[in-house]
Design goal:
Elements (H helix, E strand, L loop, with lengths): L1 H12 L8 H9 L5 E4 L13 H5 L4 E4 L19 H10 L1 H15 L5 E4 L5 E6 L6 E5 L2 E7 L1 E6 L2 E5 L3 E5 L3 E9 L6 E7 L2 H11 L19 E5 L2 H12 L7 H17 L4 H6 L6 H14 L7 H7 L4 H12 L3 H19 L4 H7 L5 H12 L3 H8 L11
Antiparallel strand pairs: 1-2, 3-4, 4-11, 5-10, 6-9, 6-11, 7-8, 7-10, 9-12
Helix pairs in contact: 1-4, 5-7, 7-8, 13-14, 14-15
Length: about 400
């Protein structure tokens, strides 16, 4: 592997230094090799000598490579039987993201033994695997970051269609009912994703600690897109590296209590300093409309089966009814009534699938007074009557999570 050869060749670049020593390697290597990030994982010398610390410390060790660093090394001669580093650097420099994606996919695949959503030993971290394209499924996204490692998924939020591809991530700042389906997956290249739950308070504390480095708050009213509670972006190399370090901790359960919180903070920090940082900060700032709408969403989620009273929600959010309606639609891409309806239908679908309830019983449980009205709205949302839809879904792996 290129990583193995590179690790071996570093020793010959610095013959006067003890490359086996982690601190010296970081000190002498990272100062010379900059920019494009190459994570060394599970690295051993080809002759199995030394460098064992890289297996243990790959979570904190990054060696950076830049092609122009080696322009003055034309006279460098590799050890006998070894591939010259100057010959492999161009390929490494052009394929860093691919290499890191392969490592992410390897770790995610290792810890997903079956299809579906799987919990891990790291609090708040779940892994998702799907081996084939799926039909439309419903779920309620909670405040979280979802990183797509391999495959493609499409979701619908209100009138908005969002597609996220490999090495992209989805940031959900509030609880949102969505429809989604896997559109690219196979046995050879399954859909793989990692979901990290995020507490808005955790974001707020990190923003406070960042001080002047925190992303500035931008007026959401001047750009409605800024208010949306669901957005997608691509993962830069730094964020990919942070996610990789978090996933690699699964191989070292004894390190999880100490290092997992640090890895979580790094990931959230990378998101905050990225292009979606301002959006994330809006939902952690208590004096913004976005934060007030998040409290309204929490109330609707907790009391979705009860009659909707806009006046009470507006009073609790300290907003006028018209302002509440306008701001709510900016964040969720739907009205409060539509939001409640989707929560009810999502939960009814889950009850029929997991608890075997009849359609009429499920409709009463989630707050409908008329089973026929429930059936019409269910068919409109999911494309089939309740019984036919549930029969189809029983053969699929994805069971919706409960609303509460």
């Amino acid at each position: 592997m290129h990583e193995i050869v590179l690790a071996y060749e570093l020793r010959w670049c610095f013959p006067q230094q003890a490359i086996y020593d982690k601190e010296r390697l970081v000190k002498n290597g990272s100062g010379l090799l900059r920019e494009a990030c190459l994570i060394l994982s599970d690295v051993l010398y080809p002759d199995n000598r030394g460098c064992q610390f890289l297996r243990r410390h790959c979570l904190i060790l990054q060696i950076q490579v830049r092609l122009r660093t080696f322009q003055g090394m034309k006279n460098y001669t590799a050890p006998k039987g070894r591939t010259p580093m100057t010959a492999i650097i161009p390929e490494i420099a052009g394929n860093l993201s691919v290499s890191l994606q392969q490592q992410l996919a390897r770790v995610a695949s290792q810890w997903t033994t079956h299809q579906g959503i799987q919990g891990t030993a790291i609090d708040g971290l779940e892994l998702i695997r799907c081996n084939e394209p799926s039909s439309c499924g419903s779920s309620v996204y909670e405040p979280s970051l979802c990183f797509v490692i391999q495959g493609t998924k499409s979701i619908q939020l209100g009138d908005r269609q969002i597609t996220y591809e490999p090495l992209s991530y989805l940031a959900s700042s509030v609880h949102l009912p969505v429809l989604g389906r896997i559109i690219e997956a196979s046995d050879e290249r399954p859909y793989l994703a990692a979901k990290l739950k995020v507490d808005p308070q955790e974001v707020a504390e990190l923003v406070l600690e960042m001080g002047d480095k925190a992303p500035p708050l931008q007026p959401g009213e001047s750009c409605p897109e800024m208010q949306c509670g669901l957005c997608v972006s691509s993962m830069g190399e730094e964020l990919q590296g942070g996610l990789y370090r978090l996933l690699r901790l699964l191989d070292y359960p004894g390190d999880i209590p100490i290092l997992a919180p640090l890895a979580r903070r790094e990931i959230i920090y990378r998101v905050l300093v990225g292009e979606m940082g301002s959006r994330m900060r809006r939902f952690a700032a208590s004096d913004t409309h976005a934060h007030r709408i998040s409290t309204v969403i929490s109330a609707l989620k907790d009391h979705y089966a009860e009659p909707l009273r806009i006046s009470e929600l507006a009073e609790a959010a300290n907003m006028s009814e018209s302002t509440l309606y306008h701001s709510f639609k900016q964040v969720t891409r739907m009205s409060p009534l539509q939001f409640q309806k989707k929560l009810r239908l999502h939960e009814a679908r889950r009850l029929m699938l997991t608890e075997g309830l009849e359609a009429a019983t499920a409709s009463y449980r989630v707050g409908y007074e008329s089973p026929s009205h429930f059936s019409r709205e269910y068919s409109r949302m999911f494309g089939a009557p309740p019984k036919a839809d549930v029969t189809l879904l029983r053969g699929e792996w994805e069971i919706p999570d409960p609303v509460f």
